[in-house]
Amino acid sequence: MAAPMSIDVAVGAGDHKVVEQLLKSGADPNLRGADGMTPLAIASFWGYDTIVQLLIKNGADVNSSNKGTLWTPLHCAAFQGHGKVIMILLENKADLFKADAQGRTAVDFASAHDSIWAFFAAAGCKRTQKEALIKMNIVQKSTTEEISNQLGLLNFSNLDQKLQNETTHFSDQQTNNMIALTMGDVLAGVEDSKDQAEWDTRYNKPSFTVWNN
């Protein structure tokens, strides 16, 4: 007879029904798996919002850290950009400023995501500067040559070819802006400290997307 599925495996599989059954049978919602991650961290990382709610309802610690990385569930959700999970965690008093093993907070990770920053701005957080995010290895700074090489890979349509050809006429900053739009890097179009005031003005204003259950 096969051994029953552990709660961390069930959460990782996104199996809400099995997770619910395990919790009803007395499974510990804070029991770390072999990789050191808590069930809530796993659910937060993969964006399983209903499982996140279920685990919290059954006593999962929203601020428990994984072994090794010391990431909290909020770190995981911010890293992956899962807005609905972030909303649930913050509603349950997740610690915005708890640091991981490298001294980075969920706010730092969220600073690299336009799509989720509104939740953190509404909580009164100040967006971490681009230079600091680079030093933390949260984002990478691309040279103009690297950006051009990335754009050179976009040969899959006439529109992409036109985009590639037009970049030859742009300044470094214009090219950075284009790669920001094309590759989804919200920081690529932002220069260093001289543009920080504009960065703060543009990206510290809350702007919410509403989810319906």
What does this structure look like?
Helix 2 runs parallel beside helix 4. The protein is mainly alpha-helical and 213 residues long. The two termini are 38 Å apart. Mean pLDDT is 79; it is low at 153-171, 173-194 and 205-213. It has helices at 7-12, 16-24, 39-46, 49-57, 73-80, 83-91, 106-110, 114-122, 130-135, 144-152, 158-166, 172-183, 196-203. It has two domains: 1-123, Ankyrin repeat-containing domain (Serine Threonine Protein Phosphatase 5, Tetratricopeptide repeat), CATH 1.25.40.20; 125-171. It is built from 13 helices and no strands.
Summarize the structure.
This protein has helices spanning 7-12, 16-24, 39-46, 49-57, 73-80, 83-91, 106-110, 114-122, 130-135, 144-152, 158-166, 172-183, 196-203. It has 213 residues and is mainly α.
